[in-house]
Structure formats: C-alpha cells, structure tokens
Design a protein that fits this description.
Layout: E1 20-23, E2 28-31, E3 37-42, H1 53-71, E4 75-82, H2 87-95, H3 100-117, E5 125-128, H4 129-145, E6 149-152, E7 155-158, H5 174-183, E8 200-204, E9 220-222, H6 224-235, E10 240-246, H7 250-265, E11 271-277, E12 280-282, E13 285-286, H8 297-302, H9 307-315, E14 323-324, H10 327-345, H11 353-364, H12 369-385, H13 393-405
Parallel strand pairs: 3-4, 3-10, 4-5, 10-11, 12-14
Antiparallel strand pairs: 1-2, 6-7, 7-8, 8-9, 12-13
Helix pairs in contact: 4-6, 6-7, 9-10, 10-12, 11-12, 11-13
The structure holds 5'-O-(N-(L-cysteinyl)-sulfamoyl)adenosine and zinc ion (ZN).
Zinc ion binds at residues 43, 81, 228, 253.
Domain tRNA synthetases class I catalytic: 39-334
Catalytic activity: 1D-myo-inositol 2-amino-2-deoxy-alpha-D-glucopyranoside + L-cysteine + ATP = 1D-myo-inositol 2-(L-cysteinylamino)-2-deoxy-alpha-D-glucopyranoside + AMP + diphosphate + H(+)
Binding site for Zn(2+): 43, 228, 253
Length: 409
C-alpha cells in the first residue's frame, strides 16, 4: 500500500537527546538505545470509521518519538499496518450494505489525508493485512509444525503456554486477561481450547465471508495478532526499538504478538519497549467506533479548523494520560496557535537557543509535550510583550516547533 507524503523536517542546530520512555513491560522508564537506524512499528487503523481524535492522539505520540530520534541524527525505519480485513470491518460493511473492500479503501484514503494534514511522518512501509497474507500463512504453518498451534474445527489457535514470557508485556493477572480477551476480539468461552486465552491464528473460511488460499491450513483468513507480527518481522526483524499503539492494545494484541514472535524465532524480546498512548474520551466514554461517540479529524478540517490547531490540541495532553476531547480543548489550541504565530511574525526577537534545548529536554523526557508547549508559551509571551534584537530567533522557533512538534507556524 502507498502511505502519504512526508512533510520536510527542518534540521536544528546541535543535537537532540536520547529518548527516555515509559515501557509497559517493565512498568518503568527506560532509555532507548537505538542504532543509527531506529526501528518502530505502530499498529494502524481498522479502516471502517477513520480518523477520530483518539486515533490522531495515538499517532501523534509516535510521531513525536520519530521526531526526537531524527533530532539525534538517526534515521527512522517506521512500519505501520492497516487491518483491512477483520470482523468489525466486515460487520460494518454488511450493516451498511456496502462492499468491504470499498469501505476499507475509502476510509484508508481519508486516514492518509488526515495524517498528511496533521503533518504526521509517513511509515516507510505501509502494509495491509490482505497483502500480508502470503507471508502470514507460512508463519502459522511453522507454529503448528513446532507444536505451538493446534486446530479446532478447522480454525488454528496459538497455544499461549508455549511462550515462557507470556504475560510479560501487560503484566495482568489471569482474571483480568480473561475479561479483556472477551472484550477485545478474543473468544475465551469457546469450548475445546487448550487455554481460554489462546488467540486465533487462522480462521477457516466462513460462509459469505472473504477467504484466501492458506496452503496446508486450508482457505481462510488471518487472526489479528499474527498480522502485525508477520509485517513487523518482515520489515523490522526481532528486537526492534518500539512497538506502539493505544493502551487498549497492550492486552491482548501486543501480548499475543510478542508471544507469537518469540516462539517463532526462539529470540527475546520482540520489541525493546512497548509504548502505549492513553485513551481519548468524549462525553465521559472512550471514543470508539463501536460506541460511535466520535469527533473526526476530517469533519473538523472541513469545518475550517486549521490542522495545526488540531495538532496543538493533541499536544496539550501528555500522551500517557487518558483525556476528554471538548470544544474548549480546541478553542485553547486555536488561541495558542494565534499567539505563537504572532510571536514568530515579528521581525526580530528574543534569543531562542535555550528554548530549543528546553523543548528537546521535555520531549526526551517521556514525550512531555505539555512541558514543551509551556516552554514555547513562555518565549512567545515575552516575545509578544517585549520583542528583542536577535534576528534569527523567530525563524529558529518556527523551525523548532515544526521539527520537534510537527506544527507549521
Ligand atoms: N488495527 C488495529 C491495530 S493492529 C486497531 O486497533 N485499529 S483501531 O482503528 O481500532 O485503532 C487504531 C489505533 O488507535 C490503535 O493504536 C488504538 O489503540 C488507537 N485508538 C483507538 N481508539 C482510541 C482512543 N479513543 N484514544 C486513543 N487511541 C485510540
Ligand atoms: Zn497491530
């Protein structure tokens, strides 16, 4: 699949700091130590209702990760998937009487437009589940042949007990895992499974649903977790730096994915850090396609909201906190954008070298975007009130805000 165009990232003087980030698996902050090419996999959308503010907030967090790395003069190898065949997508297509491929294509196209407008850096590889199927089938066969997967009425399940590290991503107890598995696409109640948590790797063809050649597995379609594992192993390999997504993916998705990959390769870990963004809510409930309480990026754009203001609204919350989208959040961002634009439009200004370092330090410190905004606010306030004599300062601030926060002033 093609991704979307990259906006230019200005180079800043000096060098950024290494990223210290909260890792779900260890439950603490770790200093990442990527090589010259940092590797990141971020779980993409299931394209049936794109792009709401929750999605945008999560992708914003991982865009910041990349901007911090780029500022340390590393290259970034970024991979993202599109779950373009899965139960919820097929159910929505049936509900609305439309072709599921058209639905997926339309929503993926809209997502690309939204990501471009928000200046999110594009993945180097943007891969759909459907196009990944030829790579998924042999992985499931390998797991089965190694005794890590078993058949149940034609479907193939992964046996979680074959991974000694199972549970080490989310660190949940058995009861919590069981509840979340039922809520998030698993089938813990299905009779005949070795362990109720075992996730499906390959679903045998169902009447009226799309299916693909599964070689010795028979016709069917892939399970959800193996999709991301196949894509990540193909394009990044084991031990990549960051596995990212919203906190609703920690269990079961990232837990199961790590286990699949660790059993397949015999190596550990799948990723150096598992990084999770908080959930954005509307009217007191998590924004979700299934609930339908959504604020869309595209709707705001069509209403004339500047994408830079949407981006500032996302940045005004720490990526790990759960927060509520309100009109006030957006109004504050519009106002802040105005203040910043006025400040960088003055012909000369207050020296900004210290500000560059403050923004760098804030982001390197577990992506503390609110602290970065506060630093720019302080500069802008003084600049608007007093100005200065440093000719290069407004340009430097503008480039800093663009390079590190993805906001074009
Ligand atoms: N296709 C899978 C991942 S492989 C999926 O979860 N798709 S999704 O469309 O449901 O979500 C896409 C991304 O947005 C995921 O990282 C998910 O965790 C995140 N996300 C979904 N809802 C919210 C929300 N309300 N707040 C923050 N992030 C969210
Ligand atoms: Zn995923």
């Amino acid at each position: 699949m093609h991704a979307w165009p990259a906006s230019e990232v200005p180079a800043l003087p000096g060098k950024g700091r290494d990223l210290r980030i909260h890792d779900t698996a260890t439950g603490g902050r770790i200093t990442l130590d990527p090589g010259p090419v940092a590797r990141i996999y971020v779980c993409g959308i299931t394209p049936y209702d794109a792009t709401h503010m929750g999605h945008a907030a999560t992708y914003n967090a991982f865009d910041l990760v990349q901007r911090v790395w780029l500022d340390t003069k590393r290259q970034v190898h970024y991979v993202q998937n599109v779950t373009d065949v899965d139960d919820p997508l097929l159910e929505r297509a049936v509900r609305d009487g439309q072709d599921w491929t058209e639905l997926a294509e339309r929503e993926t196209a809209l997502f690309r437009e939204d990501m471009t407008a928000l200046r999110m850096l594009p993945p180097k590889h943007y891969i759909g589940a459907v196009e990944a199927i030829p790579g998924i089938v042999p992985l499931v066969e390998r797991l089965r042949d190694a005794g890590a997967a078993y058949e149940l009425d034609g479907d193939v399940y992964f046996s979680v007990e074959t991974d000694p590290h199972f549970g080490g991503v989310s660190n949940l107890d058995a009861e919590a895992m069981r509840l979340l598995s039922a809520e998030r696409g698993g089938d813990p109640e299905r009779p005949g499974k070795k362990n109720p948590l075992d996730p499906m790797l390959w679903m045998a063809a169902r009447e009226g649903e799309p299916s693909w050649d599964g070689a010795s597995l028979g016709p069917g379609r892939p399970g959800w977790h193996i999709e991301c594992v196949a894509i990540a192993l193909d394009h990044l390999g084991m031990g990549f730096d960051v596995q990212g997504g919203g906190s609703d993916l920690a269990f079961p998705h990232h837990e199961m994915g790590a286990s699949h990959a660790q059993v397949l390769t015999g190596e550990y870990p799948f990723a150096q850090a598992y990084v999770h963004a908080g959930m954005v809510a509307l009217d007191g409930e998590k924004m979700s396609k299934s609930r339908g309480n959504l604020v869309f990026v595209s709707k705001l754009r069509h209403d004339g909201v500047d994408p830079a203001a949407i981006r500032l609204a996302l940045l005004s919350h720490h990526y790990r906190s759960d927060w509520e989208w309100t009109d006030q959040v957006l109004a504050d961002a519009v106002e802040r954008l105005g203040r910043w634009r006025a400040a960088v439009s003055r012909p000369d200004g207050l020296p900004a070298e210290a500000l560059v370092e403050e923004v760098r330090e804030a982001l390197a410190d577990d992506l503390d975007a609110p602290a970065a905004l506060a630093a720019v606010d302080r500069w802008a306030e003084r600049q608007n009130a007093e100005g200065g004599t440093d000719e290069g300062a407004p340009g430097l601030v503008s480039r800093t805000v663009d390079a590190l926060l993805g906001v074009a002033l």
